[in-house]
Amino acid sequence: LAVYAGLVYTSHICRWRLSKVPSKSKVVWEKFSHQSKFQRKLYHYGTFPQDFNWGVSSSAYQIEGAWNADGKGASVWDTFSQKPGSIPANANGDVACDSYYRLDEDLYMLRALRVKSYRFSLSWSRIFPDGRRTSLNQKGVDYYNRLIDGLLAHNITPMVTLYHWDLPQALHNLGGWANVEMIDIFNDFCDFCFATFGDRVKFWMTFNQPYTIAWSGYGLGEIPPNIKNPATAPYTVAHNLIKAHATAYHTYDDKYRKSQGGLVSIALSADWFEPKDVNVPREVVAADRALQFQLGWFAHPIFKNGDYPDAMKWQVGNKSELQRLSESRLPSFTEEEKSFIRGTADMFCVNHYTTKIARHATLSTAIDKQRAVAWGLRRLLNWIKEEYGDPEIYITENGVATDSKTTWDDPARVFYYKTYIDEALKAYDIDGVKVKGYIATSLMDSFEWLNGYKVGFGLHHVDFTNPNRPRTPKYSAHFYYQVIKDNGFPIPDDDKMLYGHFRKDFIWSVSTAAYQVTIEGGWRADGKGLSIWDTFAHTPLRVFDDDTGDIACDSYNKIQEDVAMLKQLKVTHYRFSISWPRVLPDGTTNHINNAGLNYYQRLIDALLAVNIQPHVTLYHWDLPQALQDVGGWENETIIARFTDYADIIFSHLGPKVKFWITINEPFRPGTLPYIVAHNLIKAHAEVWHLYNDKYRATQKGVISMTINSDWSEPRNPYKQEDYDAARLIEYIQIFNFNISRLPEFSPEEIKRIKGTYDYFGFNHYTTILSPIFLVFLNFIVDLNRGVGTIADRTWLDSGSAWLKVSPFGFRRILNFIKEEYGNPPIIITENGISERGSVDLNDIQRSYYYEKYINQLLKGIKCQWATGFAERFGLFYVNRSDPNLPRVAKASVANYSTIITCNGFPDPALEPHECLNTEPEGKLQSCLAICLFVCVFVARKQPKKKYFIETITLEKKM
């Protein structure tokens, strides 16, 4: 209050008494604005009550056309839009969707959607051509009778708006809404409509968005009647609109309610306003003030006390004082008028589209570009609940525009509805807000006011270039139909928990990589050679804050500490990679670095001493720089070099290692990816045969390659191209893959490569939506991706832009591998979620990720599990500000300790499982680890092959 009062220039000039500012509804910001992104975006499954009102909307001028047919009079929108230059491409509503003549087609669309309600408006000038009863046009009345009867014949409730901006031009000529006489004139129109249609219409709205009428029509002059007088006209017009609404309400209450039993309200508009900084009181005040000026301007008198909000009275009154005006520019209601206005609504109807940031003293009231900020709807509904005494609320408009080029394929609109309706569900199901109905905007593309036909809000596409105005359902229409059918979002089978256990020999593991996650450090210690990542990380501008892997987690010097953590985790296996240049400094057998070999021998011995099996990756991207200098993987001689290197490792470490990976993720974007992939595959095959022929009999291990892949869902399941593209088996044929770009294997090479695996090593993180997802599970080929992939906006984010939490895809891709590759044994060698920003040891999002993904794995019970991760995917935080690099457990450790101890998910409906009673051995008890440490630097996956490093940030699979 003190901050707010500080805006007063001198206390003696303010005649306006302040109430509590901001309003008591500030509790909404206190409750929601401190939510984490995870809490804010977590999707909520559930359903609305059985009597929930699902509908769609339209308005007369936007769809009817027939602007002067059958005796209709001109409206202010007819006059405005017919003036050249008013609307882009000189568009107008003369024909629009031609609904006046195509009523049956509109009714067909409504029946197909299975909506319960249809919100439409009456054209005042179609019923009263000059705005008065004496000019009654019976043909206009007949049209609306046919519409209403057609709706009721199919059990669709008419929701009628009496005024949606199209004032008869004749009434504007008398001064329009600035003329106080309009109150009685409008009441007479309403009286006629109640009497004529009220026997069948039980849901009335007097005005649509009076704020827009007053401010955009009479203040900014943007829409008809295009009066630009922001100083006084909006306040006068709003004053008349409020009294006109109250008068019409009382007319219905006094004359028709008893016999007709209907409801009357007013459709108000409201963005949500989020403070620029919720911790700064004056910014919360600014957000509250913005809501009071937009929504409270009309809601406060009608739903609260018959008068304007105190914040509004103070602001306008104080400025009027400063302008030396004799009275405030904001008119006053008499006590009698306050009593007359207060309570003149039977439900709270609100139109909502977007959210804005409120800044103290700089708030703009102009309508900016609409942005999809779904969580703002939940907060707005809660604010209405708190501010206006928990009324029943109908969301009478909500939707998003797409440009005219978007016809029936509109996934952006689907995402919008999916997120916004879910926020309404949260408000109802979690917060107890009385949300009674949801009206999608709009039934079909139509004349979109100042935008003409450049954009469309419709669930159905209308071809305005065709005189027959054909309607075509969009993807969003199919989606909305399903939402209505399901009455919300019942939890899908994919997301239902499966209770049970993995088999007893199930592998639980953690994973690291020499340069990246284990990040040994000791980058030049004891004779180690340079790798390409050493060179890259030491190149100027490649890293932030000079981060390199020189020390990293210093695992090279901390074997005992790392093994102690593994022991506490109670994992059965540990996947790590060997640094090729640590063993062979120049990549060849010319010089073997025994110190490097000794390090890995000591590590393996330490693991085996505590019954942890080593799972060793020979190559995890850290190619010796000396080999890169002679062409790297583009030079075919590297196949022999890699085989020689593997031979050294097998001979020295193989007697104690039973699980091998030749190459981690051979698909990486490169200069010549096809040649590189060709050589990688042949190198893998040669090493597999080396192990099979020379070492398997005595060492008795298994060896394979680790492949990576996301799962792909069709972006639009009703679009055959997207559906086919998501079927990974057929991608080559579907997209006319240029096979000439691939080198060919000879028949002998094919024979040697085929079958060179003992298990299917698989890295998986996320799911994508794309019409051109290209994946080949033997190796993945980058086709320069002509169309980018997208993600469902309802999927939770992570610290990596590419990684969205989508557990259902995990099970689906495992089933795909099973069906496509003959049900091979599978080891999941990487899976996890990243985080970004300040370190939070209470990493609830990681716990959520593990639980959901591992449960999907349980549903595909025949797979084996070992996992690892990159970009700060860690269960443990490494404090690099401490020279000792201590490891600190995060909260997700406890969650995964339980999963490993229980070997799955015991059913809570049964007796408590004995695994839940196990006394933990400390905070670092066993858990399924996506990675052991949070370390320092990674190559970040970026478009156009741009890579860079971030402080204490590990990106995907470096």
TrEMBL record:
BP terms from Gene Ontology: carbohydrate metabolic process
PROSITE patterns: GLYCOSYL_HYDROL_F1_1 (PS00572), GLYCOSYL_HYDROL_F1_2 (PS00653)
GO molecular function: hydrolase activity, hydrolyzing O-glycosyl compounds
InterPro entries in the record: GH, GH_1_N_CS, Glyco_hydro_1, Glyco_hydro_1_AS
Keywords: Glycoprotein, Glycosidase, Hydrolase
Residues at the catalytic site: 397, 830
Pfam families given in the database record: Glyco_hydro_1
Top EC class for this record: hydrolase
E.C. designation(s): 3.2.1.21
Domain of life, source organism: Eukaryota
PANTHER family, A to Z: GLYCOSYL HYDROLASE, LP05116P
Subunit structure: Homodimer.
Annotated family: Belongs to the glycosyl hydrolase 1 family.
Protein name, entry field: beta-glucosidase
Source organism: Anabas testudineus
Lineage, opening ranks: Eukaryota, Metazoa, Chordata, Craniata, Vertebrata
